[in-house]
Amino acid sequence: MKLSGVLSTAGEWLRGEGPHHQVVISSRVRLARNLRDRAFPGWAKKTERTLILEQIRSRVEALSEMQDAFSEGLQDLPALDKQVLVERHLISREHAAKGAGSAVVVNRRQTLSIMINEEDHLRMQSIRSGLQLKQAFKLVDKIDTALESKLDFAFDPRLGYLTACPTNVGTGMRASAMLHLPGLVLSELINQVIQAVSKIGLAVRGLYGEGTEAMGIFSRFQIKPRSVKKRKRSSIV
Amino acid sequence: MHKVNLCEACSKEKGVQDPTSFALADLLLGIGAAEEIEKGAPAKKCPVCGFTQADFKKTGRLGCSECYVTFAEGLGSLLKAMHKGTEHVGKLPERAQRTIALSRQMRALSENLQKAVADENYETAASLRDQIKKLESELSNSP
Question: Is A40 within 8 Å of chain B by CB?
Answer without folding.
Answer: yes
